[in-house]
Structures are given as structure tokens and as C-alpha cells.
Amino acid sequence: MSAEKSGIASLSTANALGYEAKPSPDFPVATGKLCQKGLHSVTHAAHPERILAPLRRREESGISGRPLVGSGLDAAGGSAGAGLRRTAHGVRPAATWQSATWTEALDDIAARILRLQEQHGPDSVAVFGGGSLTNEVCYLLGKFTRVALRSRYVDYNGRYCMSSAAAAQQRAFGIDRGLNFPLDDIPKAKYIILAGTNIAECQPTMMPYLLAAKKQGAVLVTIDPRQTLTSKIADLHITLQPGHDSLLVSGMLHVLLEENLYDAEFVSAHTEGLEEVREAVRLFPPDRVAALTGVAEDTIRTVARGFAAAETAIVLTARGLEQQVNGVEHTLQYINLCLLAGHIGKPGSGFGSVTGQANGQGGREHGLKADQLPGYRSLEDPEARAHVARVWGIEPADLPGKGVSAYELFGKILDGGIKAMIVLGSNPIVSSPNNARVAEALAKLELLVVVDLFETETAAYADWLLPGTSFLEAEGTLTNLEGRVFHRPQAFAPAGDSLPDYRFICALAERLGRGQYFRYTSVSDVFDELCRASAGGKADYSGMSYSRLKEAQGLFWPCPAAGEEAAAKPAGHPGTPRLFAGGVFPRAGGRARLHGITPQPPAESADPDYPYLLTTGRLAGHYLSGAQTRRTEALAKKAPEPVAELHPALAEQLRLRQGERVRLTTRRGSLEFAAKLAPDIHPRTIFVPFHWGGELAVNRLTNDALHPISRMPEFKICAVRVEQAKPVHDPPVPETAQKPCSK
Questions:
Q1: Going by C-beta distance under 8 Å and a sequence separation of 6 or more, which residues neighbour residue 174?
Q2: What are the start-end ranges of the H helices in 342-405?
């Protein structure tokens, strides 16, 4: 399920798998709708390739069964066959699995962890989590790493998702929540800018809110390297080269200040840093920005004036501009635009970052990030450490310090510092940039444990592959992009010998000699402790309970147990749907921070050897690494493999026709794809979706440069050479191929 959340009302017997999903008409977010992924989501739980018992890698003929480098599975997502497996860099021995009991698995894993930590120290073991796990599991993974393993090394794939927006909102507002307003504020907005986000295809259940705004006269502006399905309903679309967002918004801010269109009263009373912004944009008048970006000066002025003059206005961003080494700065520029115009903290106005992972918001709130503790507390804050240590029953001095980001964990493996890793709910070989380096790291581990539904590309490297539970089998809570916390009930008992994730974590902690810190009789016990640990933090859940969440169909954080609002209501604090009411921000002095941004080039720019820019994104029918959706027949039929989208003018230069093979080469390697001619893409930009592994894994080509603060990789821009590949007898690109989205 996506980050806005959709409700499934019933699972009725309807097909060979036994069930189909139907949307809940009363669910408070998705307006009674499910996207195509939601409609087919039941197939994942009942899929014949699902892992239903612990599997141990078996060595044969004295040769390790672990691939040395590459992707693990074939492009379609299934096993490449017994005996040999084709990986990204040649043919390697395939994984040979042997069934085992949970007792055997847990005993062996614990013994190997203890041995490695005795030899190399606590930090020799790391944990890599996922943004689709429940709040309870995210919380427990962070606690498990720091208390049971006593390691500093934990992070999750959400680092690849919203870390730029999170860092920007923390710096500007003092708090990070995907949206600082409820979704039903969108129809109240009179002007909406969508930058680097394609909601129609990536978050389709949000579309009714945009359509309602349009029906009430809102102006909709989309900014993207391509015209997408979302841009088809826009009043204005700006085709922007990847990496130019800060430049473009500098021109808009220049107009607001030059023409005195900004909300001087709001800025004076509720912000700081105006002169920094004024100085930064002084050198970027609209005519210069037009020359640098190719966007018409009149367009820049029109959008700036329209946004400032609107009674209410919203900006929504996503991965298109955030997955860059300048993603924090791009995001801060759009926040500057909202603050200067006074469009924040009131109905119909605000800034938001749209995400796609089911619990990308909750995952980063409760300790699954390298630098955070539950409640969105800083790991380096002595008061935060003391509070969380008290809840956990340990001494603050026993809490490890800050670790490293998700991608940097693989560097620690290559450096020899990390010897073992537990991966739960993630497929980093497909989702990480420069993925050959990730494969090299995983092959070097002395112990890799993967918990998942399927033998993913990452699981092909595992020593132990353990069966996880599907979303239908796991009770817990999830937090959507609004900061609204929902209870998700368990629909079915876990399939086969699969074990709820929280029970696996607790059982392993017991065998590591730390079981006294993980005594839970139910998942609700975990949530109750999470709430206590979050008390007083920015993401305060302490006023929540399972019973309240079920009754209210969700509560917005912060929702503290103490305070005047909580005391005034018999049921407790009502939650906080809208942040910053009255212009008060959770920063020292209560003011938001404006930032003077000087636009910077990407880590790689086009040059004579690599004259174009490669960008990546998602398809409407696929989800993240594609481990589940590539196994869903109805979805895979629509997009059986990725295609490279490029402008017809470039295709003409290459003498390339629709469906013929094109070779893309970056400084990290070469891959071939079928070409799709797209007149609506930026002429110097090539787009490829990232949901595949093997020879179709575009993340083998992407740049692993990191933002210095957020540690977000540069997924969305790398210099690329484009050539016609040698002719092959491939079928043409099907007309049903899905349109891509920039998120």
C-alpha cells in the first residue's frame, strides 16, 4: 500500500488464488478507491513462489553458492534455474536452499553473530530495514540493533526516499512530516504546484483531491522533465531539465522580492533569514534563469505572481527533485516560496513531500534511521538518550552513537568493518545506486540474513532466507504522509511457517542473551512501549492506543498524553491534522527559517563523452524494487520489462525506431533497453524505470554520490552516452506500456 494509505473493506472469493481486494468506501483517506497495485495486492500473499519456511544456503562441491557480484534473479523476478544463475557480470553458481526449522535458523544465526561480535566487536553486525514495515517492527528493529546487538549500524531504504525532504523540513520548520496539512485541504487550495511528482500514476488515490481542487477553480502547475498523466490536467506544464529546480525557483523568488509580492507581515512576524534569501536570488533575475534553464521568462513571472496572489496555495514535491545531491536545497527553495508567500499553517495552504512507501513516514520516526531515536528524537541529544534509555531499561551510556546511512553501510562492509547484516523488508541490490558495488559488498559478508516473502535479488546472496509475513497477516500500525496513524488488523494467520516480524526479532534477541528487553506478549504491547518512548518528542504518539486508533480511524501526530488539549478532551488529545497554526514553528524562537540557496550543479553534468542526462522513476503498476509486482501477472503484462524513454529528435540522430535496442553507458557501466520515443520528454534527458534486477537494473548505471547532510544518493541525474545497440529480434514496445512517473 502507498503512503497516503488505501482501505481494503473485504477479501472476497473470486479467483484461482481464492480472494480479491475491494476498497473500503468509508476509509478516511483514499475516498473509496484502490489503485491497480492495491486491487492485485492479495496475489502477493498467495503466490506460489512465496517462501513459507526458513531456508539455509547449502554449499556444494566446496564452492560457495553465493554469487560474487550481480543481481541474483533473472529480469522477470523468478529463479534463473537450478545449477547456474546469470548475474549482472556473468554466470555464477545458483543458490541451493535447504529447508530448516525456526529453532535451527535462530540458533545458527545467533551463534554466528555472537562469534563475529566476539572477534570484531558489536559494530560488526548491521541491520537494513524497510519503509513498508509497521511502526512496531520499525521501532523494534531500531531497539534490537542498539540493545540486543549493541551496534550503531542501522538504517533503512527510506533513506532513498524522503531523506532530502526530511532534512529540508527539519531545517526550515523544525519538524518533518510529509504533509503539514491534511489531504482534505488540497481541494481548498487555489494554486497548486507539483514539482517532480506524478500523482496520477504514483499516488492515484490522491487524484480525487486534485480533481476537486480543479473543479473549484484551482490553478495547477506541473514541473517535470516529462509530461505525465498528471500534467495532462494541469493548466501549465514546465518541462525542466533534471537538476534545475533551485535555479527555477530562484527566479520565482526574485520576482516576489523585486515586485514586493511577498507577505511582508507574515515574513516579519514568523520567519527569519529574509536577507539571506534576498542576497542569494539577487544574481538570478528571471531573464538569466530563463537563459540557464530554457524556461520562458514570462512563465517564471506568471507562476511566481499567481502563487503569491492566490488566497490559498500548496506546493507538493517528490523524488523527481529530491533524489539528487542538491535535493535538500531544491526542497528548501520550494519551502522558501511557501514561506515568503505566507502559504503555510492555514487551511488550503502548505508544503508537502509526497512519498510512495507504505510506512516511509513512520519508519523514520521511531529509530530505524542511523541518527534517530523514537519520537523523531536526535540520537545525539543527551535528554533524548536519557528518556529512551529509561523506557528501554538501560543506561544512556549503553546506547551506541550515530551510525551511517543506508548506502554507506555497504562501504563499511567493503572496508571490512561490517561482517554480518540482517535485511528485513528491503531489496537493496535493486533499489540502491551503482548496484554492482552493493552486490560486491553483500558477497563479502560472512553472514547475510534476509527476511522476505520471496527469493529477491538480495536474498540470492543470503546465508539464511527467512519467511516474512504479508500485510494481510501482520497486525500493526502505519503512519501515512499526513502524519495520520492507522491501525491495520490481521486478516489471516501467517502462511506456512512464516513468523510475524516482531516475534522473529524478539526470539533472536533472546538467543543473543538480551531477551529481558524484549518481553512482549502481543504486537499491541510493542505499540504501547513505542508510545511511551515517543512521549515528549516531535512525533509524539503517547496519547494514542489501539482502541483509540480503531475508533477514530486514525490520529494525527503529535498526539501527546499530557497537556491542556489532552486534559480538555474526555477521550484524550484529538491529534494535530494541521501543523504551524498561527504561524508558530517548533524551532527556537518559534520562527521558520528561510534559507539563502545558491544553485549548484549536479555531481555529474553532461560532457562530450557522456552528452545526455539519465533519470529514473516508477511505473504505475510496479512498486519499489518490483519483488512483488513483477510476480503479479496482471501488472507484469502491462510492463514486462523497462524501456528507455527518449526524445524523437535524439532517436532520429541515432537512426533509432520505436522498440529497437538502445545502449546506455555511464561511468559505471552499460545496459541495453528497448527504446520508447516520447515527444514530451526533455530533449536531452533519458528516462528508465528502476523496478527490475539483472541486466535490466538501471541502478547499475546510477550515480552513488551522496548529499552531505541527508546522504541521499544522486538517483535522478547522471551523465549518459546513448547509442544504437546491435540489432536484435526483440518485439516492439507494446502500446500498453505504462507511462512512467518521476517519483
A1: 538, 585, 586, 587, 592
A2: 360-363, 382-392
- Cβ neighbors of 231 (< 8 A, separation 6 or more) are 198, 222, 224, 237
CB of 690 within 8 A of CB of 157? no
Q: Compute the distance between CA of residue 540 and CA of residue 375 in angstroms, rounded to an integer.
A: 6
Average pLDDT over residues 636-653: 90
* pLDDT tens-digit series, residues 701-725: 999 999 999 999 999 999 999 999 9
Hunting for cell 524556461 — which residue is that? 295
- Which set of grid coordinates corresponds to residue 351? 508544503
Q: CA 728 from chain center: how many Å?
A: 36
Which residues share a beta bridge with 156?
Answer: 129
pLDDT in tens, 42-91: 666 777 889 999 999 986 544 444 443 333 333 333 333 333 333 333 22
Q: What percentage of the chain reaches a pLDDT higher than 70?
A: 85
CA 239 vs CA 244, 352, 678: distances in Å:
10, 21, 13
- Asked if pLDDT for residue 379 goes beyond 90, the answer is yes
Q: Give ∠ CA 126-131-137 in degrees, rounded to 5.
A: 70
Nearby residues of 304 by Cβ (< 8 Å), 6 or more positions away: 251, 252, 253, 255, 256, 261
- Model confidence at 13, pLDDT cuts 50, 70, 90, reads very low
Per the model's pLDDT, the better-predicted residue between 357 and 714 turns out to be 714
Determine the Cα–Cα distance for residues 293 and 482; give it in Å rounded to an integer.
Answer: 33
Say what the pTM is.
0.90
How many CB atoms are located within 10 Å of the residue 405 CB?
Answer: 21
Residues 6+ apart with CB under 8 A from 442: 410, 413, 421, 429, 448, 458, 461
- Phi, psi of 667, deg, nearest 5: -65, -5
Q: How confident is the model over 483-506, as pLDDT tens digits?
A: 999 999 998 899 999 999 999 999
Containing 665, the helix (H) or strand (E) segment is strand 661-666
pLDDT digits over 401-427, tens only?
Answer: 999 999 999 999 999 999 999 999 999
Q: Measure the CA–CA gap between 535 and 387, rounded to whole angstroms.
A: 9
Residue 57, beta-bridge partner list: 97
Q: C-alpha 101: how far from its chain's center?
A: 33
- pLDDT exceeding 90 applies to what percent of the chain? 76
> For residue 235, is it left (φ>0), alpha (ψ between -120 and 50) or beta?
alpha
C-beta of residue 359 within 8 angstroms of C-beta of residue 131: yes
CB within 8 A of 297, min separation 6: which ones?
A: 251, 286, 287, 289, 290
Q: What is the 3-state secondary structure (H, E, C) of 462-518?
A: CCEEEECCCCCCCCEEEECCCCEEEEECCCCCCCCCCCCHHHHHHHHHHHCCCHHHC
For residue 84, give the C-alpha cell.
547456474
Characterise 50 by phi-psi region: left (phi > 0), alpha (psi -120 to 50), beta (else): beta
The answer to whether the beta carbons of residues 434 and 700 sit under 8 Å apart is yes
Question: Cα separations (Å) of 117 from 120, 143, 199, 659?
Answer: 5, 18, 46, 52
Distance from C-alpha of 106 to C-alpha of 491, rounded to nearest angstrom: 27
- Are residues 161 and 167 in contact, defined by beta-carbon separation less than 8 angstroms? no
Q: What domains appear along the chain, each with residue ranges and CATH number?
A: 50-160+360-376+404-519 (3.40.50.740), 163-353 (3.40.228.10), 532-593 (no CATH), 612-741 (2.40.40.20)
Confidence of residue 34 (pLDDT cuts 50, 70, 90): low
